[in-house]
Amino acid sequence: MDLPSDVAVAAAPQHGVIGLEQAVAGGLTQRRIGWLVRSGRWQRVHARVYATFTGPLSYEAVVWAAILRAGRGAVASHRTAAYLDGLCDDPGPVVHVTLPADRHVRSRIAGVRVHYAHRLDRTRHPARNPPRTRTEETVLDLVDVTRRPQEVEAWVTSACQRRLTTPDRLADALGLRKKIRWRAMLESMLSDVSEGAQSPLELRHLRAVERAHALPRGHRQRRVAGDRVIWVDVDYDRYALRVELDGRVGHADEGRFRDRRRDNRATAHGYATLRYGHADLFGDPCGVAAEQGRVLSDEGGPECLARAVPPAAFP
Fold first, then answer.
1. Of 145, 165, 204, 237, which has the maximum CB count within 10 A?
2. Distance between CA 228 and CA 261 in Å, rounded?
């Protein structure tokens, strides 16, 4: 059976999926739609949502079906939007959609998780299909629901490494959010950490590791001359220990050789090197202090450094 042209036009950009209202507006009666489903020519995907073909649905068709079922203003978001944009390689077991906060879906939608947002009109992408949140908003949405700092780091670095966005654009989007989990870590990651001793990551190490756990004070941003000048983030020269703080976002390849050369040179001159990132310093500063304290103790530091002194409180 040939579909009315208006129905075909509506279904085509939606990967063959159509809502009941669209089908009726295109010239089909509800009785005819029921017959198409019963005869096997169409498939019912959700209540009032149909696939106008037989066989399996593409992922985009599955997402369209969820958006149409959720209704007016719905967009793909979170991990679903991340997969559509190439931010991750696994869409996960459910489709995530976000609705304007003034709308609510009363009944559960099988295989779909519904979120709500107050400023969806500003955070949705203006052109992409299926409709979805902007990449920067997708990253921040995923950060806001994660419980592990390592996942925060992974989402941000993945978005930048895959050249889907930039730290500046992420920082701009972050600035528009009143509430978000892991704000301090995000602000640190998205700041320029090449400014020397005042970088957010270095300050985090100073306050949450050194001071909070009564460790010796390191020499920050020390210039070490030789065949090639290098800069050491934190140097404990008395204990032959160097700490490198990796605050780069989106540049995993360009610094790898430089880091290896720097670490190898330190080892050749009798120094131990410990390397930490945002997830370490914001997720487990006490663990960092304990590890650093053990190395300092092994290198001739005070015996008390073999254990981390629990902090009373630190920012």
1. 204
2. 10
